[in-house]
Amino acid sequence: QVHLMESGGGLVEPGGSLRLSCKVIGINFRLTSVGWYRQVSGKQRELVAFISSGGDISYEDSVKGRFTVSRDNIRRTTSLQMNSLKVEDTANYFCNINGPNGHWGQGTQVTVSS
Description:
The protein is mostly beta strands and 114 residues long.
């Protein structure tokens, strides 16, 4: 059974940083694509960062230059380093493998507020 276990959310002031992590078990992680999504209550979930099994990376425009996605295939983890956080980054963040029809983490809340 596939499980994705997220950690690292919390409350941070504007301009601060947070690092989200996601541990994946139950699947050959090195063969998966990884996405980090976020969702604000009442709005659609949006993809903010993506890293393919081959290491190709893309970002949603609003986070380019501030967020960095990475993966460690040996430790079967993926991370999202978020710097220069803005109030509008406040959301519930989810890690995902193999696309929307794949597997999801439980979500971790990120709140950016002074």
